[in-house]
Description:
By secondary structure, this protein is an all-alpha fold.
Amino acid sequence: MVNRNRDIQLKFRVTEEEKKFIELKMKEANMSNREAYLRKTAIDGTIIVSNFEETKKLIFELNKIGTNINQIARLANTNDEISKDDINELKEMVKQIWQLQRSGLLEKHFI
């Protein structure tokens, strides 16, 4: 009889593609013992949880800013002049983008 410290067995099923992927990841990790690899991955692995609602809000705001910038650029190209109000609006939009970047939202969602 084999004396084992680990006496609880866990089982799960995978597809053929998942099995091949696990074997590839094992090879990349230079591990040949599947049980040790799966245990290490399950205990030390990280699962990334994304909040897509915040990402959607950020994308919506960036799209609005982009639309406004395009409208101002179109106006400048057709009339060859742009008003001080348009310039101030553009500056405000750029300021909003910088504020998003400084708050870390751009890195958090896109990098």
